[in-house]
Every structure is written in C-alpha cells, then in structure tokens.
Design brief:
The chain is of the alpha/beta class. About 35% of the residues lie in helices and about 20% in strands. It contains eleven helices and 14 strands. The strands form two sheets. The protein has an eight-stranded parallel beta sheet, sandwiched between helices. Strands 1-6-5-4-3-2 form a six-stranded mixed beta sheet. Helix 4 links the parallel strand 7 and strand 8.
C-alpha cells in the first residue's frame, strides 16, 4: 500500500481543490450516499483525546477509518494538535491501499468545509474576515475563505496578544492585509465573516458582539462541553451543520442552548449539503445571522484521502509491503 506523509498531502491537495472535493462529499452525505456512525471519542489524561471515525463513501466505494489523537498543548512544543492516520481500503476485495497523514488531511478539509459553508451562507458582498484563534486551523481558514469571497481585510484575535501579532505578521507576509486585536469583541466589530478556531472551554464570543448580516463558522469545539459562543448568539442565528446526527449528539453550543431552553431541536435548520442541493433554504435576507457548526465527518476525510491516493498513484509513488 501507499504511505503518504504530510508534505505530500499538502502538495497533492491544495485548498482550492479540497474545497471542490469537500463540497461533493457534503452533497453525498446529505443525499444518503455515504455510510458513517457517530465518531467515538475517548478522553485521556490532561484533556487529550483519541478519536475514531470509520465510514464509507458509498455502499460500493472506498471505505476506511481515521484514527487521530488531539492534544492542544502540542502547539507550545512546535507539534500539531491533531496526529494520526487515515487507513483507506479499496472497494473490490477490501485490501488496505493507503495510510495517509490524518493531521494534514484534517487541517485542510476542515477549512475547506468552512469555505463551502461560507460560500453557501455568507452575503455575496462579504469582504471583512475575523478569525478568533491563531493556531493551525486559524491559518488554514485565513487561506481558505478568500477563495470563496473577495476578502479585503483580515482581523485576528487570540488569548496571547504577542502570538496573535506574530500570526498577523505571518499572514501579511503571504500578501493578506491582517491586523491583530487585543480583545475578541473589537476583532469581530464590523466583520462580515467570523471563524472561531479556538480551544476555549467557555464562550469567547457573545450575541452583543456580532452585527446583523454576519456569517459565523463555529469550528473550535468538537465535543460536548467546550463552547465558543453563548446561548443568545446561537438563538439569534439561522443554525446549520455538516451532519445533523453528529450535531444533535456532539455540538456543544447547540446542546447547551437547547438544555438551557434558549432553543429547541427545530432550531437546527439543516446540513450544508441540503443547502447546496436547494432542499433547505440558507440565507434569505442580507440582515440575517447565519452559523455553520463544524464537527467534521469521515466522508470529508475519505473523499480527501481518495483524491490524494489517486493523485499519488498516478504519479507512480512506490508501494510499501504490507
């Protein structure tokens, strides 16, 4: 089988390509073509996590699983927070054909999914992007969102002002006009698109901070408990997700607002794949506030992994014995 490392994933899966791949995966999931149970998350010491996500792109297509560890303290040591592998199996015979770097796939496809959601839900004239966080996902989102909207200004906030300023300098070097802020409310003031990519345990963004007409990609929390926004902001918005079963079971912000009585289950309007297929309306008025809750699903991982596998095989990458 092929063993595909992070640099090869980055080379073979540019963000613009991944946006198109993930868009088709979201459509496939919402049309019932894919197969996936809820992901399993094992809590470990020190807040670390072990996640398992098996699934199939279709009844007769490629199938596989992502096994990944998450440790948000890694950033202080210069290591990625998400580490693991995607094991891909061929449909005919079920042989494992590739082991692909899961951290790199996750980083790219998560931001690509937010870009798909932004394209579906943000105002067409949205041009000011605010990013809360300065880690791997913040960087990926800063690169992804300008591919679907004409971004004229990027604003960044993080808990450590020095790191936020350093993050802004890195993006400025890539040609993006970026400014860092000392508090989240100032960062999101006048923003058209907000991406929350933090590891916050309690809300960092509140209903009073966000203007009308904004689209929010809610990315940082991936399990029940930690939440990045308050109940009132959830209740204000037209709320969408990547996978309805996953969101109802594992979306912390939605779950908290529902348990507190701020919303009920009907507040979850649909999946992005349903919006793309025009089965569920997205934004209907410019002044509406929209939220996309990103949890990620294995169809996104497998579709991205399949693309990388086929590209590597076409290049003649040598196989390793298994």
């Amino acid at each position: 089988m092929l063993v595909i490392d992070a640099p090869t994933v980055r080379r073979l899966l540019p963000m613009s390509t991944c946006i198109a791949v993930v868009r088709e995966a979201m459509l496939a999931l919402s049309s019932g073509q894919t197969r996936q149970p809820l992901r399993q998350i094992v809590g470990l010491a020190g807040g670390r996590l072990l996640g398992s996500m098996p699934g199939a792109l279709s009844e007769s297509g490629f199938f596989g699983a992502k096994l990944i560890s998450v440790d948000h303290t890694n950033r202080a040591h210069g290591k990625p927070s998400h580490q693991g592998g995607i094991l891909l199996f061929e449909p005919d015979g079920g042989a494992p054909v590739a082991l692909i770097h899961a951290g790199e796939i996750t980083a790219i496809r998560t931001a690509a999914a937010s870009a798909v959601a932004t394209d579906a839900l943000a105002r067409p004239d949205a041009s000011r992007l605010a990013i809360l966080g300065y880690g791997e996902q913040a960087l990926a989102h800063a690169r992804a969102i300008p591919l679907v909207r004409r971004i004229e200004q990027v604003r960044v906030w993080g808990r450590d002002p020095a790191q936020a300023a350093d993050f802004a300098r890195r993006l400025c070097a890539e040609g993006l006009p970026v400014e860092s802020f000392d508090d989240a409310a100032s960062c999101v003031a006048n923003a058209d698109i907000i991406c929350t990519t933090t590891s916050a345990s309690d809300p960092i963004l509140f209903a009073g901070d966000v203007a009308e007409g904004v689209h929010i990609n809610l990315v940082g929390s991936s399990l029940l408990g930690p939440r990045e926004i308050d109940d009132a902001l959830v209740a204000r918005a037209r709320f969408f997700c990547d996978s309805r079963p996953s969101a109802l079971a594992q979306a912390a912000e939605f779950d908290h607002a529902r348990r507190e009585g701020a919303i009920d289950e009907s507040h979850l309007l649909g999946e992005i794949g349903e919006v793309l297929a025009a089965r569920v309306p997205g934004r209907s008025r410019a002044e509406e506030l929209t939220i996309y809750k990103s949890l990620g699903h294995v169809a996104q991982d497998l579709a991205s992994a399949c693309f990388v596998f086929e590209a590597a095989r076409a290049e003649g990458m040598p196989e390793v014995p298994f």
